[in-house]
Amino acid sequence: MDEEALEIRHALYAWVRVWMRAEVSSLVDRFSPLEGLEPRGVRIKAMKTRWGSLGPKNDMNLNWLLAFTPPEVLAYVVIHEICHIRFRNHSKAYWDLVTRHDPMWPERRAWLKQHGTALLHRFG
Predict the structure, then answer these.
(1) In CATH, which of 3.40.640.10, 3.30.2010.10, 3.30.565.10, 3.40.50.300 is domain 3-123?
(2) Rounded Cα–Cα distance for residues 71 and 78 (Å)
(3) How confident is the model over 61-110, as pLDDT tens digits?
(4) Nearest to 27 by CA among 67, 86, 56
(5) pLDDT for position 122
(6) Residue 92 in 3-state DSSP?
(7) Most buried residue, 21, 86, 93, 105, by CB count within 10 Å?
(8) Strands 59-63 and 41-45, bridge-based pairing
(9) Which sequence spans correspond to the domains of the chain?
């Protein structure tokens, strides 16, 4: 990657982090109170293989590339991580909780499976 392209990438990454912080804050404010599940903090970062994760102290980590997905996909990943505050697994109870807040989650997940790899390889 040449120097100019690298500068553009860094500028884009910086802008996306600011934009996503506001978007994710709005989503957390919308979904967290419904179950009383509040992440301690949110980090937007470059992640090579994951779209999101939840740390042991309920810190939510989100891949900056979610900015390039449809809004409902970003919302799904935020809901997915918020639900992990209650269930640290992918049990039936966990998926029931996700479904309660996003009944269309299988379509969001399918979008990530179909298009996400290309995003990760292009920008990751």
Answers:
(1) 3.30.2010.10
(2) 11
(3) 999 999 999 999 999 999 999 999 999 999 999 999 999 999 999 999 99
(4) 67
(5) 84
(6) helix
(7) 105
(8) parallel
(9) 3-123
